[in-house]
Design a protein that fits this description.
about 170 residues
């Protein structure tokens, strides 16, 4: 159960994708996966924490996540177990789906550009901005903006300014 929650928090994948990701989709730098909801291929970069988690997880099935019997989870089965764990822990007001925001925040803090996070999550860039403004310190967001501004080369032109003629 812990692996499923941590995998969700590191990848941002939806429940339906979490239970279907095969080990073969996991590369050294990311997970290349065709999502179930949008039916499009995404590359989910693996942060150092995600890489460490994947190394730790046992390979008991063709899918990354497997239940205690070594079989792939069903959506209903994983949902039920997460609900039970949430109740046992006394957690209210949060769902598995909320871990997508956690993953987006972690990707940002690991250096992923906002537009890439939006692509991975199938969100608008404004949604990423809103989430980061709420959950990441203002200093981190400002530093990201400054970093991106400083990486853009100055526009180049062949046109030279012509000094004004003295008349």
């Amino acid at each position: 159960m812990g692996w499923a929650i941590r995998f969700a928090a590191e990848t941002g994948l939806r429940l339906g994708d979490l239970i279907r990701v095969p080990w073969g989709a996991v590369g050294l730098q990311g997970i290349v996966w065709k999502t179930g909801k949008k039916k499009r291929q995404v590359v989910v970069p693996l942060t150092p924490a995600a890489k460490a988690l994947i190394k730790e997880m046992p390979k008991r099935a063709l899918t990354v996540l497997a239940n205690s019997r070594g079989e792939p989870w069903t959506e209903g089965g994983l949902k039920h177990m997460i609900r039970e764990a949430r109740i046992a822990a006394g957690i209210t007001g949060l769902r598995l789906h909320d871990l997508r925001g956690t993953a987006a925040t972690r990707l940002f803090l690991a250096g992923s550009p906002k537009r890439d996070i939006a692509t991975i999550m199938a969100w608008k860039e404004e949604t990423v901005d809103s989430l980061l403004t709420k959950y990441v310190s203002g200093d981190a967001v400002a530093l990201d903006l400054l970093s991106r501004m400083n990486q853009k080369p100055a526009p180049q032109t062949d046109h030279k300014p012509v000094p004004a003629a003295n008349t």
